[in-house]
Amino acid sequence: MFMKETTIVYAEMESPIGPLVVASTGSGICHIDFGTFRDCEPELRRWSRRWLNTDRWVRDEESLRDAVRQLSHYFVGERKVFDLPLDLRGTPFQLRVWNALLEVGYGRTASYKEIGRRIGAEKAVRAVGGANNRNPVPIIVPCHRIVGSDGSLVGYGGGLHIKSFLLKLEESHS
User: Fold this and answer.
1) Which residues are the active-site residues?
2) Which of 75, 101, 116 is the C-terminal boundary of a domain?
């Protein structure tokens, strides 16, 4: 049986935290990365080969207009909840963690241990941290809202300065 190769469409957008690449399969948003496509291309292609068995990427700003609009509204405090289909690809454990992240509301934080507790893996704090770090859709899947047990900012793929910016943004619009 012939299988049609998956095409990933992407758009680039400017944001207060720098350029972002927003990507989607036909099923939903599958990846957001910090930087331009040119900057992120090697890692994006590695990711898509692993999880989607393709490295076919096509720039298509029109297809992602709604996602870019919602992200833009988020960055100016006009959107607190995203209404976008997601196509998350990861291990079953990662998917459980990412789904738990979606339950951490705007302007709130949770610890890695709390996320572990929510998914029935309270002692798996390091594994929760690893899954949080591999979240392919930051901002929309709010991994920036996860902090250390003492409330400290620990780890963020985009850098702690971006995590701090996002938390302060949400705090100022809560």
Assistant:
1) 143
2) 75
